Amino acid sequence: MVSAVRRGTSFRTAARRFRVSLRTVQVWVARAEGQRLDRVDWADRPPGRRTASNRTPPRLEARVLALRHELQEHDILGEHGAAAIRQALVASGTAAVPALRTIGRILERHGALDHRRRVRRPPPPPGWHLPAVAARHAELDSFDVIEDLKLAAGPLVDVLTGVALHSSLPAAWPLVPASTSHILPCLVAHWRTYGLPAYAQFDNDTRFQGPHQHPDVFGRVTRLCLQLGVTPVFVPPREFGLQNAIEGFNGLYQAKVWRRFHFAVLAALESHTRQYLAARIQRLAARLGSAPARRPWPASWHWQPAQLPAGCVLFIRRTNDRGEITLLGHTGLLDPAWCHRLVRAEVDLAAAEIRCFALRRSAPDQQPLLRVLSYCYPRRDLQPRIPNADTCQ
Fold it and tell me: Does residue 389 belong to any structural domain of this protein?
């Protein structure tokens, strides 16, 4: 290559001929400049010393490793980390004691570290706690409430938010206040416009689940879902990952709507929210088309607040230290070996039973049945408690 260039061949022609880069030709020609080819050092190594001048001497590295083994086997404290090794070197009067980080690098270089690197497992698929949703056979709508947003010339405002898991279909309603009586018409209007999902997910807020002070209580939101053939799902808010979709949309709404503009009255916030949702839905047109299909709104449906149809209500719960689960005001034993673990409890009102399935993020596709508990819902006559029930028609 260098000989070809000296005979008059251009650098680029030599590079194409020997199938190397132009920079390679330039480097070797520069190294052989002014020398006979048989006297050029053709060694392919960087210039300078073969070992760094500041590298720890091999004898000192061996001393560090031997001292670690000695401390591990014979020291009364049993401490044999980098700090203990450096302290022992200082106590023994060793000259030029290496720094703490240098000792750590010596141990790491020779594989003498006890710790194991954390195994990073892939996250479970979205909606993994519901097999049909994880397989993209069904859609899931999640709902939550952003509380106590202060208008400039008005009261505190709550915002009911919603988002679909697969299509990311957004929804938001500023409410004063976000009570159950105001939430129900919003859900009906949203599902009447865009269709019914297979599942609707909420947290344990009493506005969604119903009062907690009495056992065997199914709130009006649960009754609405069952009357429409939508399976309600209640998840604890502090469980990592189950509420990611709605929490992400809550942050997006506050960042792109609430914090960007000044709203003096509720009407201004409602108007801007509608504009934002319309633009967001237009942006998500392609994703909306590829999402699981939603069922059409039933033509002859009427809201009956006191009716609790036969269906399934799902609860995601975590067992206690005895493998027990608390649900609907009752505590039952599932499995003593399944302590502090997630469980999907399916309350089947038609079959009068509760099916409990084990959930693990490391194996989301394996959800074995732990136990079937008998459950009989105490039927009682309930009076409608919605002063504006006509708005749900």
Answer: no
